[in-house]
Specification:
alpha/beta; about 15% strand; Rossmann fold
Length: about 260
């Protein structure tokens, strides 16, 4: 399927590895002019080279922290009029909620809620003026199925979910869509951190924790980041203009609810 977005521009944050990288790669394959942002310049440059080599399309690079105003301005200077925004941020660390400080909570809210909102604030007017925009916020399946160990980041993600759901209704008539993708367990560095925490809490090895987690999923496996990237690319397509304000779970059937 031709997604109809060749020649569009996209800004993808937290894109050096994992799901953000997969989204950037999928968009570049569709002919989108992609700019990627992440904190580690060395990893980011390698990712840009790999995507360019795989797709034949050059990739812009901005090394920076999405929570910093100046770094966001640099990203928007490199990609001044994005048609597509993939708002991805690294999740807050797992832990015991009784040990989280006020500073921990504020940092989680700043990174997981405030930073995406600021990116949307900066990019949305241009999208509305051009009568095309696709905003995808990458959150977590745990927004729908809370887990106390990971509540530090996901509580803030729930706030982001509420905000973009309301905002999406205001901009749909301008052919701007805003959706959230809610990943379950994908085979990324992030899931390794979660598995290590689970293993420590349960007194088992990481490989055993991994095997148990995979076996508990109806699909009996972890997701491939490429699957996630392709789903994200479709949400950014011309054909997806009637999908907005949605929280779309991609987790191999792990979430048991209907809504």
């Amino acid at each position: 399927m031709n997604l109809g977005i060749a020649g569009k521009s996209a800004l993808v944050t937290a894109a050096s590895r994992g799901l953000g990288r997969a989204c950037a790669l999928a968009l570049a394959r569709e002919g989108v002019k992609v700019t990627i942002m992440a904190r580690r310049a060395d990893v980011l440059e390698n990712t840009a080279r790999d995507i360019a080599a795989s797709t034949g399309n050059p990739v812009g690079v901005v090394a920076g922290d999405v929570t910093r105003d100046e770094d966001r301005r640099q990203a928007l200077a490199a990609c001044p009029a994005p048609d597509i925004l993939i708002a991805n941020v690294g999740g807050a660390p797992p832990g015991n909620w009784q040990e989280w400080s006020r500073t921990d909570w504020l940092e989680a809210v700043d990174g997981t809620l405030v930073a995406p909102v600021e990116l949307i604030r900066a990019t949305l007017p241009g999208m509305r003026g051009r009568k095309f925009g696709r905003i995808v916020c990458i959150t977590s399946a745990l927004v729908k199925a809370p887990n106390l160990t990971l509540a530090l980041g996901n509580a803030a993600r729930s706030g982001l979910t509420n905000f973009v759901g309301a905002l999406s209704r205001q901009v749909a008539a301008d052919n701007v869509t805003i959706n959230c993708l809610l990943p379950g367990p994908f085979d990324t560095d992030r899931v390794q951190v979660t598995l290590a925490a689970t293993a420590k809490a349960e007194g088992i090895g990481v490989e055993e924790a991994r095997a148990r987690r995979a076996a508990a999923n109806p699909a009996k496996r972890f997701g491939d980041p490429a699957e996630f990237g392709d789903y994200c690319a479709f949400l950014c397509s011309a054909q997806a203009g009637y999908i907005t304000g949605q929280n779309l779970v991609i987790d191999g059937g792990n979430y048991p609810g209907m809504l």
